[in-house]
Structures are given as structure tokens and as C-alpha cells.
TrEMBL record:
Domain of life from the UniProt record: Bacteria
Organism: Cupriavidus lacunae
Region described as Disordered: spans on this chain: 223-260
Listed Pro residues bias regions: 225-256
Protein name per Swiss-Prot or TrEMBL: DUF4390 domain-containing protein
One family name in Pfam for this protein: DUF4390
Cross-referenced InterPro entries: DUF4390
């Protein structure tokens, strides 16, 4: 026999279904919040790592102190100076037989309002620094030039001073135009052995580089004119001349004695008398009176 359903049964069923849905919704929201929090934390950590690692790995320890362009014999040469100290890690690797390569990058560009910038010059030069343990000498090699040094400081001073590097020819630029020049120095990590390249990516001491040194260069209109003479170097202060010894005093002539003076006077009188009584005068006849 079927029983008549009661209203309380429906109420219980309805209340149970709504409570389950609300509980499920609350759990879903909580899980979503927790997941969003974890994602946000992971994103923040990732951004921090991305921003911090380059700053930690990049060490701006090379300073460009001078940069200029000089026209010489139909070409343009770069004169630049840098200042840096070799970190102990690199010095230790150098003494263990690892050669260090320093690259000098140079760029020349000209702005154009109607198109992209014109970049007629983009060149680089590499300088190799090595150590010879047998002779205990440092060797600097660039192109076909090799120079030995007994001190590391002297070798670094030669590398830091760039002179006579022809960066572009006369036909690469237009006379009277202004160009934007950029130069920098860096440790070329691509020349290192492979194991050192992997470790040097995120190591501060191995990321040795300078910022770009930028300056404006205007090409002279008269390139055939002789270059101005360099300013004269200041003369060193002259050393004081040594004082000469005083010359001995010359004694005054002693006055002649009285007998000597009388003898001189007598000789003068006799000479006068002899001239007056010469033989020519004695034999001359006397003139007759008319």
C-alpha cells in the first residue's frame, strides 16, 4: 500500500541538495584562491629571478674614460682609453693557462628621419692576454703584434689604451655630416673553453664589460688639410746650474823700486841722445853761409 508523501521529506531533500552545492562552491572558491596565490607567488619569484640574475651576473667594472676619432692618411682611427682591475677569479684562471680575450666594439650610425638609421660601420677587435709559466711573462697578442710583459699591470695598461686602430675608411662617410659613435670593451666569453662558458654566464666576476661610450663625430669638410700639430708638451723644470768656484784674486803688480825706476829713466835718456847723435848727422857737412 502506497503511503502519502509528506512535506517534511521534500524539505529535507531540498535542504540537503542546496547545502551540498554551497559546500562544493565554497571548496571550489577556496581551491581557486589557493591556486591563484601559488601562481602569483611563482610569478613573483620568476620575475625576481629574471630581474636579479642579469644584475648579479652583469658587473660594470670597466670604465671608458676617453674616446675620439682621428683622421690619418686617408682613414679614421679610434683613440680610446679604459680603466679596470682584473678580478682575482680571472687572474687565477690566467695563471692556470686560460687565455683571456678582450673585445673592443665600435659602431658608427647616422639618423635619418625618413627611414631606419644608417649604420655604415660596425667592427670589433680582439686582444688576447695569456701567461707563459716557463718564462713567467704575460703576452699580449692583437693581429700580428705580440708583446711580452713581465708584470700583469703593464700588460693590462697596454690593453686599456687603444691607439692607431683604423675603424673605417674615407669613402664610408660623407664630409660635413655628423655621426653617432659608440665604443665599449668587454671580456669575450665565447673565446673561453666550453666548461668556463657555462659557469661564466651567471658569474659576476666573469662578466667583465663596460657601458657604451657615446659621442658625436662630425667629419671634416677639408680632409686634405694637414692635421693640426699636437700641443707642445710642457717643459720639465730646469735644474739649477751648479755654482762655479770663485776665481783666485790676481795680485796687484808690486810698485817698482826706486833704483829700478832710476835705471829705466837713465836708459830712456841715453836712447834719446843716441838718436840725436847718429852717424848720419855727424858726417853731414855744415851748410855754408852766403
Amino acid at each position: 500500500m502506497l503511503s502519502t508523501p509528506r512535506l517534511s521529506d521534500f524539505r529535507v531533500n531540498v535542504d540537503t541538495s542546496v547545502g551540498t552545492r554551497v559546500s562544493t562552491l565554497v571548496d571550489t572558491i577556496a581551491d581557486t584562491r589557493s591556486m591563484l596565490a601559488r601562481w602569483s607567488l611563482a610569478l613573483v619569484l620568476t620575475l625576481a629571478a629574471v630581474l636579479w640574475l642579469p644584475l648579479a651576473a652583469r658587473a660594470q667594472v670597466i670604465e671608458a674614460t676617453e674616446a675620439r676619432i682621428e683622421y690619418q692618411d686617408g682613414g679614421f682611427e679610434l683613440a680610446a682609453s679604459f680603466d679596470f682591475d682584473l678580478p682575482p677569479v680571472l687572474e687565477d684562471a690566467l695563471h692556470k693557462g686560460i687565455s683571456l680575450y678582450f673585445a673592443v666594439d665600435f659602431q658608427l650610425s647616422r639618423s635619418r628621419w625618413y627611414w631606419f638609421d644608417d649604420k655604415p660601420v660596425n667592427t670589433s677587435r680582439s686582444v688576447r692576454l695569456s701567461y707563459q709559466p716557463l718564462t713567467r711573462q704575460y703576452r699580449v697578442s692583437t693581429g700580428g703584434l705580440q708583446l711580452p710583459f713581465t708584470r700583469l699591470k703593464s700588460a693590462l695598461q697596454f690593453i686599456q689604451r687603444v691607439r692607431g686602430w683604423r675603424v673605417f675608411e674615407r669613402n664610408a662617410v660623407k664630409p660635413g655630416e655628423s655621426y653617432h659613435a659608440e665604443v665599449r670593451m668587454r671580456l669575450d666569453l665565447s673565446q673561453l673553453p666550453k666548461p668556463f662558458q657555462i659557469n661564466a654566464v651567471n658569474t659576476r666576476e666573469w662578466n667583465l664589460a663596460s657601458d657604451w661610450r657615446r659621442f658625436v663625430y662630425t667629419v671634416p669638410t677639408d680632409l686634405n688639410a694637414p692635421p693640426p700639430p699636437p700641443p707642445p708638451a710642457p717643459l720639465p723644470p730646469s735644474a739649477p746650474l751648479p755654482s762655479l768656484p770663485a776665481s783666485p784674486a790676481v795680485p796687484a803688480p808690486a810698485p817698482a823700486s826706486a833704483p829700478a825706476a832710476a835705471i829705466d829713466q837713465r836708459g830712456l835718456t841715453m836712447q834719446t841722445v843716441s838718436y840725436g847723435l847718429s852717424p848720419a848727422l855727424l858726417v853731414q857737412p855744415a851748410s855754408s853761409q852766403p
